[in-house]
Design goal:
By secondary structure, this protein is an alpha/beta fold. It is about 50% helix and about 10% strand. It folds into 2 domains: about 180 residues, Rossmann fold (3-Layer(aba) Sandwich); about 120 residues, no CATH class. It contains 16 helices and 7 strands. The strands form 2 sheets. Strands 4-5-6-3-7 form a 5-stranded parallel β-sheet, with helices on both faces. A hairpin with a 2-residue loop joins strand 1 and strand 2. InterPro entries: AAA_22 (IPR049945), P-loop_NTPase (IPR027417). It comes from Paenibacillus rhizovicinus.
Length: about 325
């Protein structure tokens, strides 16, 4: 939604910018904030791409925020290089029957090709190579990046098809870096390839690995919360961060969510202990953001309109996020 000075002057509620009901990013959950984990991952991916590493693994528990991290990196990664390097995000789907025709059609769809469905598998493969070649040439680069989300779903034969793409691009002088993003099964898959002596697949797609983690300490929590305070204007360019919009009076008095980092992280740890979870805390971003969203919606201007947020509100928000139930039900890995 666009925002102009006239909107601020004529369409305001209690002095705040006008936002249609239920459309604020905190209401929809559609927003991206930088975290320590994403910044560390970005540095790793930049190094891989810069060194023309053909492939690597990014793995971690479910709901840590890996998919959101991909979206964030899709936005910022091109700017890390002198020219805009083509970056694509591909979704690995679960198939009852693995079919080469469908495989290449899905890739064409994911890269927004105008004609993903026409032709046989060989024609789709050729169309894909041509499309990638054209985009690489227009970027002025000789490389591109694939992020494959939910890559633990890939079967051996699909790795072979990916290797074919890699070979075809290599023959054109184009370096492809494939980032496999998924769960720990990817590490097990690499071990299986090693036992089967499929070193060509390991060398193409699994040379290096990176373990993606959740919120592990107060500093991680503070970095995330600072995003709500400082780096989240909505409407864009309005100067109204998420915290300011939902807690305007408290914000005007100097309240910032990042100052709650120690209390919030301690509340997560206490909730874990009460539930009999004694492993070191690693909070998935899904539940961290759900907790913050709940506090802003329930206790902010559109809800109870509190003047301050304390441990009582954080504890209630953690409970309503579903975090503890999820940890107890699935068990905690690593």
């Amino acid at each position: 939604m666009g925002f102009s000075s006239s909107d601020a002057e004529t369409l305001t509620v209690d002095g705040r910018p006008f936002v249609h009901p239920k459309t604020h990013p905190i209401e929809t959950g559609r927003y991206l904030l930088q975290t320590n984990q994403i910044e560390s991952l970005k540095e790793t991916i930049v190094r891989w791409v810069d060194n023309r590493v053909p492939g690597g693994i990014v793995y971690g528990r479910p709901r840590l925020g890996k998919t959101r991290a991909i979206k964030y990196l899709m936005h910022v990664l091109p700017a890390e290089f002198d020219q805009r390097i083509p970056v694509y995000s591909l979704k690995c789907r679960q198939y009852k029957v693995i079919n080469e025709n469908v495989f290449f059609e899905d890739i064409l769809k994911d890269i927004n090709h105008a004609y993903p469905s026409s032709g046989k598998a060989s024609q789709k493969r050729e169309r894909l190579t041509k499309y990638l070649k054209e985009n690489v040439e227009s970027s002025g680069q000789h490389r591109l990046v694939f992020f494959l989300d939910d890559a633990q779903r890939l079967a051996d034969i699909q790795y072979g098809w990916l290797m074919d793409i890699n070979n075809e691009l290599d023959s054109l002088g184009i370096s492809l870096t494939v980032i496999l993003v998924g769960q720990k099964e990817l590490i097990h898959q690499r071990s299986a390839f090693q036992q089967a002596k499929k070193f060509q697949l390991i060398g193409r797609f699994m040379i290096d690995d990176y373990r993606f983690s959740g919120v592990k300490n107060v500093d991680d929590a503070q970095t995330c919360l600072a995003g709500y305070d400082q780096y989240s204007d909505y409407p864009e360019g309005s100067g109204w961060s998420f915290t300011r919009y939902f807690l305007p009076d408290a914000f005007a008095r100097g309240f910032r969510l990042e100052d709650c980092a120690a209390d919030l992280f301690d509340c997560f740890c206490s909730a874990r202990t009460e539930a009999g979870l004694f492993q070191k805390a690693e909070i998935p971003m899904q539940y961290f953001t759900l907790t913050v969203d709940y506090v802003l919606r329930r206790y902010g201007r559109n809800g109870e309109d509190l003047n301050q947020i304390n441990r009582l509100q954080w504890n209630n928000a953690i409970k309503n996020s579903g975090y503890i139930k999820a940890e107890v039900n699935q068990g905690v890995e690593e």
